[in-house]
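Q: How would the structure tokens look for this protein?
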Amino acid sequence: MRRSEHTSTRPTAASALALLLATTIIACSGGGGGSVPVPVPVPVPVPPPVVNGPAWLGYGGDAQHTALAAIRTQELGRIVWQAPVDVAPQYSQQGYLLVHYGSPVITSKNTVIIPVKRAVAKSYRVEARIGGNGALAWTMDSDYVFPAHNWTPAYNVTLTKGNRVVMPGAGGKVFYRDDADSPTATTNSFVFYGKPAYSANQAGFDASVHINTPITADNQGNLFFGFVAAASNPAGLVSGIARVGADGTGSWVSADAAAGDAAMVKPAMGAAPAISSDQKTVYVVVKGSGSEGQLLALDSTTLARKSRARLLDPSTSQSARISEDSTASPMIGPDGDVYFGVLEAVQGTHNARGWLLHFDATLAQTKIAGSFGWDDTASVVPAALVPSYTGTSSYLVMVKYNNYSRAGSGDGKNRIAVLDPNATQPDPVIASQPVMKDVLTILGPTPDPRFPAGATEWCINTAAVDPFSKSILVNSEDGYLYRWDLTTNTLSQKIRLTSGLGDSYTPTAVGADGLVYAINNAVLFAVGK
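A: Here is the predicted structure in token form.
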């Protein structure tokens, strides 16, 4: 959903979702009087096969947010199962669903863990379902409270490589279960500023301290996240970045201290920290009281600042805008380069597309930007997945490439794109500005009824890449899930999930058995053969 298109979020009555199919078995028997009907045996449900595959750990699949699948995805043949991620979705007056829904996480044993909005009020529970058939394995309620916001931010859960599932709670605490697959696992909690302090004034902390980013876990199970703290909080906390060790030891640094800039007052809402492949650096985004921001590289053990970069509009060198309605998060490429999506400095001057900013690992070098960044986290596409590519880069990046109608010169020709991060071309909107070169693009296939000359928006904030089939799995606001074949540059498969609607952008994910997961109209769909 284009950021500037909708400002009203007043709810209407929620639509009822028909999510379960009832099956009736009718047995008939003939014969004369006195005969005894022969009972028809009811088949015993066949349990899903045992799975031991690659886990999908969180938003973007891993701590670098690359969205690269480690298993071949199944064909988009049917909806295997579905489950609501919002039991009472609230629509705007225009009929849009301005709610970000958190990505499912999937264990190596194929337990799918889903954050679910459980009421009209913004309260959440976490459900664990069996990946093969969607049966409920366990559930727990969270007491999490959002900070002040416009569009509803995503409530995300995260899986560590040790199979511990973690989820935000109220007051800055983190709930965890040490065996994400087990229905009988105990739920415990960490508090980054100390459990004794929290226990002494739980109500005070619950009202004044809020986790405001997804949680990211490193290879050792250490956790990183942003939080905002009101001045009234009982412990004198200042909004910033927290680290919780795998043993529960907590530490934090304020946003202004981390940036070395008093104007930086909090972490960017919804921007998940990213961790370098060598595990030594955590990248976070902080922002000021307006929309200006910085990308920081912090030591992953001490949270000391290593380096920083101002987030600037490449066409004007003015501060780019960091929107509180965005889920864009830093993505770390295989070479250590860092990518982050922003909005242009002045709304509409780049057709509300924003920019994909690009830095080296030290943040000392600003590299060529991509021509789209709004509410999008780039995915990694190994160059070998695109047979037609003749350049020299070892990997490419996939982004949303919408060109919004009624924004600047936007023509409504909404596309997705694979870009070369090291080659340039003139920007399609501002011809004097060099940007990453298009390698492949593809237009949305469905005409937009609001803008007859345009195509329905691609509805994606992180798109799963399947290196085995050389394809990418992408949601659209037309209600379909598509497979983009990178060999033929065609939408080679599609499946209808809903009748379609305008909503906040959503992720795709891949299960340990190759099922594809997509969210549309407040429902999670598991799609496979």
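Confidence is low (pLDDT under 50) at residues 4-37.

The longest helix spans residues 202-208.

Upvote if useful.
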